[in-house]
Amino acid sequence: xxxxxxxxxxxxxxxxxxxxxxxxxxxxxxxxxxxxxxxxxxxxxxxxxxxxxxxxxxxxxxxxxxxxxxxxxxxxxxxxxxxxxxxxxxxxxxxxxxxxxxxxxxxxxxxxxxxxxxxxxxxxxxxxxxxxxxxxxxxxxxxxxxxxxxxxxxxxxxxxxxxxxxxxxxxxxxxxxxxxxxxxxxxxxxxxxxxxxxxxxxxxxxxxxxxxxxxxxxxxxxxxxxxxxxxxxxxxx
Length: 237
Hints:
Layout: H1 3-27, H2 29-36, H3 44-54, E1 62-66, H4 72-81, E2 94-98, E3 109-112, H5 120-130, E4 135-140, H6 150-171, E5 172-183, H7 188-195, E6 199-205, E7 216-224
């Protein structure tokens, strides 16, 4: 096949994929709800559903949102932990949002844009922002940019999960929780076993706002035990 024909074929596939995405967005009720409730994207409803089931977000809590852009989970967290002080008779919590990408300001949140949470620089900035405190909950709705190679993409999201776990272990107080996204794959049971080394209970959740064709699900790990031994698994560092 000539180069020009390959380029044409690629462009047609991209156009078809984009058209399918647009049709799906137009038919998605959560996209419209996000506009109505002023959330930055539909993923806000995933966290709202998970919280309705588990009550992991409470006024007064300290929360860190990893890979937060564009910020819809941060918006939910700010509301639920009263980081914006809108509930005058409830404890006021705090939310820190981190992402390599730009996050536009969110009232009530400390936003750290253009920052890789896995770096020493990010850890130092978070520690400084916490001012000697530890966190109650670490959130992560992160997913890698898709390569189109299914197994590679699954390996990449597992790597992100371990990075989130390692970060949470460094900043969480005893009995804290961790919520993160994963895709179905052969490494998921191993990840669950590793989580159980550090947390008392593990729950797998598939919110209704997750698209039915998506293999995504969420691990909710509760009851952080503290670091009992070094994070020696090569996948973690």
